[in-house]
## 1
Amino acid sequence: MGGKAYNDDLLVRYLLGQLSEEEQSQVEERFINDGEYYERLLIIEDELRCAYAKGALPPAERELFKNRFLIFPDERKKVELAGAMISELSTIALEEAAEPLRAHGEKRNWRERLQAIFDFRSAGMRLAMAAAALVILAAFAWMAIETSRLRNRVAELEASQKAREQEIAQQSDEGRSRLEQLGRELEEERNRRALLEQELAQMREPPSAGGDAGLSIVSLILAPGRIRGGGETKRLTIRQDLSQVRLLLNIGERSAYRSYQALILNSEGAQVWSREALRANKGQGAQFVALRIPARLLAEDDYEINLKGLTQTGELERVGDYYFTVLRTR
Amino acid sequence: MELPSQRKDWVLTREALDQLLEQLDSDRDRAAEKYEQIRRRLMKLFRWRGCLAFEEYTDRTIDRVARRIAEGAEIQTASPYTVFYGVAMNLLKEHWRKSERESEMLDHLIQSQPSAEDPEDLMAQEEEKKEQEARIACLRHCLGRLPSESLALIKKYYAEGDVLDKEQRKQMAAELRISVNALRVRAYRIRGEVEQCVDDCLNPVRSA
């Protein structure tokens, strides 16, 4: 790190999104150009991650971290792993702390064994030993007290370990609840699967450019525009009273991916909508990925959809690009 | 206005990539290294700015710079990184201008969706649980492989202390007779090794 001075507080606030736009730009311009500064940011990011996983961030910063970092699935896994690592390290530390106590206990047994040997000596020796009876009794009393103290210490350590495990479990619960929230995002698509298949069977022709009067949903089947040699740009007319738009992306005969990720961009390249963990559904002679988009998000414009597939090894691959134009009517 | 089809007509060709690398450094290997650095930092930039499609935006930033170079522009500044940053910020601004209001509406929509049990969800949860168990087993294996000094350092740094406590860091660095910076870098790199080891353990084929 070359002994350079860094303002760590500033970097923490940058990562938690607490800086003004101007300050953010200053930090960014510097880390884009300066490798050491960039590494410092990575270190602070990781320290925040570990502090979050350990439950050591103050509530306000914890909330900021959650909203800023845990929106990324891979980040959630990193936090989980950090939490598991800290838990494992705590267990190792506790075991090491308990080790001298155990050794102490073993020493006591050795003393007991010695006393047993003395008990089997001659009568003369026993008489001599009787003189030391008080001392032995005192030793027993001391050992009983010491044993009790050690037991209490071990119990304390165990209680502390349990508390730590509960804390980690609570953090895992938070991660799980976030996953559940994401899972709920998919439910709407999945619950409609049966309905979609019925509709696909009926859709021998793509729907007309005009939205179906009286329905709150309008559907459109799209073929990929780039990888299949340039499909035509379809037009979708959205009536003002329509609430949902359903786009069925034709992905060919076979789905080779675990799931799909779709990103809709408008003509200026701005992201309008995106969704992950989409599944392919079987239609007539082809498979489709269904997107259900609130109609109000689609203004009159040209749009493209980037569809990517998640491979079995977790890589994202481009599946195809789809184009459509939205027209609005009353 | 640039339509998607027009924009999409331009793709990063081998020639354009070569021109971009040439502008980054006349030495091919150093240029490739700089390209990777730029890519990594741009991805972090988009992530730290909360852009979910950070990979997409990184590619688009690089494509835009490459296109400009292919069209005859030259990187004039002392640091080529600054050019990429400028383009990335333009893309981010376009992204925010259009999507801020819509994403709020979408968030609202997502939150209002009803919940229901889905067998596939349950299966996915089950898979996630198994993956988690495998991850813990790998983690134990990887911690067990660490040299004892490394294990002792991260145990003290992450488990026994407060990672954000400056005083504790100072004390620990003094005990180890190293600077606080060196301590933080060392702890961070050991953690990186553990993460990499867990990743390799979970994906033995990919790491082979």
## 2
Amino acid sequence: MTEISLHIMDLVQNSIRAKASFIDIEVSESLQKNKLYIQITDNGIGMSADVLKKASDPFFTSRTTRKVGLGISLYKQLVEQCNGTVTLTSHEGEGTKLSSAMDLNNIDRQPMGDISGVLVLLIAANTGIQFRYSHTTEKGQYVLDTKEIKNTLGDTPVNDPGVMKFIKEMIHENLQEINIQS
Amino acid sequence: MTKVKSLADLKKMQEDLQAKLKVRERGTDPEGYVRIKVAMATCGIASGAKGVMEFLIDELDKRNIDTLITQTGCMGYCYAEPTIEVTLPNKEPVVFGYVDIRKADEIIEKYIKNGEFVEGIIPVNYESIDNN
């Protein structure tokens, strides 16, 4: 994994597998505090205390197709390399929250990468899930909520290639507007 | 300063698009579409599945092939990622491995358009991706 946006895409797959109907991705960057905060919250099936303890173990997975589960452990490794921490909280039947904070100017911090491309693929491939993405910088905040997009689109499918291209550009331009540094 | 796109612009675009979609008039039966599942677990994403999925969406649209593209989890073929499962109408699903953009292009041209098999097929030994 070479970009933070790809880690986000991967971590969101956990929420999708947990049958979440709402996934909230919050990114916040503070030049003053030199921190990049990323939080992913879902309303999926959650994990028991026992499973939660093992979730960041690379040799644990709930899948049956393979014996390793690297998603959270790879992300945790990246965050810890950047002088940060990952906190995972979960309650069965309520959902899961992954919170992380890492140094913004750390040489090991990967670039955010194509976050608009990642978001649009997640939205288009999971039309039954409501996604909320917020990105806060010192210049402002951009919030994208797929509920609003669906209300705007009516019957037009969100996974139409023309619509996807538009949404990707819309996210990209709005993030440029708030001058994202990550 | 150029104007930043907003939901109001999306609404305007949607109205234009409605007309275009009516012309294409997609069938409502998903069995009638070409269906593609892109494996998007850690192994797939780390191997470039995002780029392959973007390529498939763009190119199938440009080549006017109605396709339902979704993502799925790991099929257990981590060594062969990115992997995609292609289901042609009324055919059994076929899983292709090592799908980079060049291979994706070949799959569209040969398998999706003409039903010709191409190299890189992974023999089916799973029940269903969704159950894993």
## 3
Amino acid sequence: MTERTSFDSHRPPSRELLDDCVHCGFCLPTCPTYVINGEEMDSPRGRIYLMDLAERGEIPLDRTMSAHIDSCLGCLACVPACPSGVRYDLLIEAVRPQIERHVPRTRIDRLVRRAVFAVFPHPARLRVAAVAGLLYRRLGLAASLRRLGVVRRLPAQVRAAEELLPPVRFRSLFGRMDAVVPAVGERRMRVALLEGCAQRVLFGDVNAATARVLAAEGCEVVVPREQQCCGALSMHAGREDEAARRARRLIDTFERHEVDAVVVNVAGCGSSMKEYGELLRDDPAYADRAARFAASVRDVSEVLAQLPPRAERHRIDARIAYHDACHLGNAQGIRQQPRDLLRSVPGVEVTDIPEASICCGSAGIYNLVQPDAAEELGRRKAAAIESTAPDVVATANAGCLLQVRRFLTTDVTLVHPIQVVDAAIRGVPLGEERR
Amino acid sequence: MVIFRIVEMTSRAVGTSWPAELAAVLGPDSVITDPARLRTYECDGLTGYRVVPAAVALPRSTEEVAAAVGVCARHGISFVARGAGTGLSGGALPVADGIVISLQRLRRILHVDPVNLRAVVEPGVTNLDISRAAASHGLYYAPDPSSQQVCTIGGNVAENSGGAHCLKYGFTVNHVLAAEVVLADGTVTTLGGQSQHLPGFDLLGAFVGSEGTLGIVTQVTVRLLAKPAQVRTMVADFATVAAAGDAVTAIVAAGIVPAAVEMLDNLAIQAVGASTRSVYTADTAAALVVELDGPPDDVAELFDDVQRICRDQGSTKIMVAADAEERALIWQGRKAAFAAVGRISPNYFVQDGVVPRGRLAEVLGRIAAMADEAGIRVANVFHAGDGNLHPLVLYSEADGEHDRAERLSTEIAELCVELGGSLSGEHGIGADKACSMPRMFGEDDLATMLRLREAFDPAGLCNPGKVFPTPRLCGERPGPYRPHPLETAGVIERL
């Protein structure tokens, strides 16, 4: 081991993991940034090369290095594509905190990140921001500011945030879930549901649908009241301490409930929670508990895949384009279950999207901090989706829903897969299931 | 000595204003000169050779490629074209003080012509994307290197790439109808044409497989084929590698031309088994993948014949792919095998030699004996049907096995030549095997090749130092990157 490494000693990427890369390039066509700009440094192979050089102390941790680490969406499409089994997921997660600690960010980048982390993980604050956003739209401010060209002159990051705000209703912003939703009929499982932070404010409908479907399929659903953000956004942005703090708190909260599984309906949260064991491995008080907790985490489609359908589904005639969220497909290997879930509804035709492995550009806070690349990827994804002429687009991640909605040009219903099943069980038309 | 002239040409002094000129013609976003970023271009799929270029240019069109080459020509700067950087012979290894011209921004499929069975594409399009674009017409592009999902058609043209199905369908050279190329002085010209047969010298034929030494291809017209009506695939296990080799000989001797015949030995199967949903038998000594395609009746009859021959040759188990998904799994395992070896060995060399098919069993036996003697493991996964071997010499750099492994690898390539075969079947000579060229070719042969090269590129700026032996290259011992003792001691550092 060289002593001249550019990384600090706190969990740097390991030499063994770096050595696994044989430089074959099979990752290149799966990498969104490489697909866009064709530059080696913005490919997984190139990024690993840079990490390797930094580990050997041959290049410093500076703005050049951070530019190419920051440009990575963390979509992990390269991981299943790698024949040598390189754990790019572990590598990038080890390097981001190093960048965060050692490379000063530009002023605007710092401000945007600070703002994002001051608002998104805090439902109360996000609710205030969302209300302000709704008023801004309802009062016609949005249209007039656009007309005046004010929006165009805003920094791209702010413009992105403005355009990402979904059409939520005041009522759903303030909706609350019951603490316990009893199983319908004989109980098959007892599960705890993660409400999510941005999820509960912007997609309360999805949470409600999730609880209803689980209950209809025989699950007693506990919704721990005091739960907070799971730390996924922090973890994906390299804010390791913050992520660890949030992970500990979430474990504390959920450990109070005796359940068979912790159920998540946001791909990004689920993938992070399944990695708690890794995140807290050096914390003696939490390492074992974190590993146990992580092992109990399930995406809602995984849980339902294990429960043969009991509740009757009414027919929904729709052609549904299913978009694999990166943190579900690539990070958790869950591709079949959501499709099977959709197909459990009579009349549903599930279609795959061309270029399915290329990320939509949402990627945690990526579309807020790297707006240009995110916009190009968003347009590309929307075009790919529309090429399949769907009636409905289904995807199991809050970020993807926001991002795809922003770039779709045609009038397509956008839902979480669980909402399709919920509508089918309740016999209501899809897209109008809100009460 | 004529063959050594190229080196003198490349060491010409580099002018000072060229980076600005390059940025002016391509735009600043398309020129990389930052030292850290340049490092990521210092090698291709063969990481043993590393040279940091002076700059990387990322043109977006033929005109921009021509303009970049024009700057090089005016300033006497060497340049190396690079596609996806998956080559295994160091063909895209940069030249010190030279420029790498990346073609990764020329990625458009310009035209698919289902009536005349052809497609016009830019060089940065991946091999597999051509077939994807043609699929809706029931067509595909036949040559299929194992890296086809990554490697680009420009690199395929440069290397005359092969692949599993080249046994029946031929190599890249048989599937390229025309190529627009930028010559070393910056002129743009088209080689070949729309018809299969053109009068005059076959300049396109010379260009395909020239490993980037004659110019840069900027547009390729490829032939498309109708997808075969039926494809059937089997995996036949054998108790010994020699028996599998004999089975290959017997199949071809029976007059059957399979679409592909591939062999994996036990070590290769272990590697594949560790990485994908493997359909291969974990403990078999060797497996043959045999694929037949064509009209259903012919395929059915010949498929039975092949199974009978395999059984006659002592096959211990035959698995027939039940559907397209199982066939895909067989190929997925085979095509990812090289990289999968990374899971069973920290380091390895990929060899690429050819032997006459009838001597397969013999050469495999001798390789095994040589490996035993050296105390080094050799995995075999290769295109058995055309005798194109890919021995993978496994070693551990950390355990000091490098030199022994490298010697063994070279001996295997030389054994192929000795048995009447070739140094390379499809990976090219590149930087890796340039020094071995005199083993296969006489001085007159090499001098003649150089005269052709000089007719295209009199100043020797186009990918110098590749294919032909040079004193600098062959005087030094090539091999993977090893830190200089002074570097390890922290006295000097490498940029």
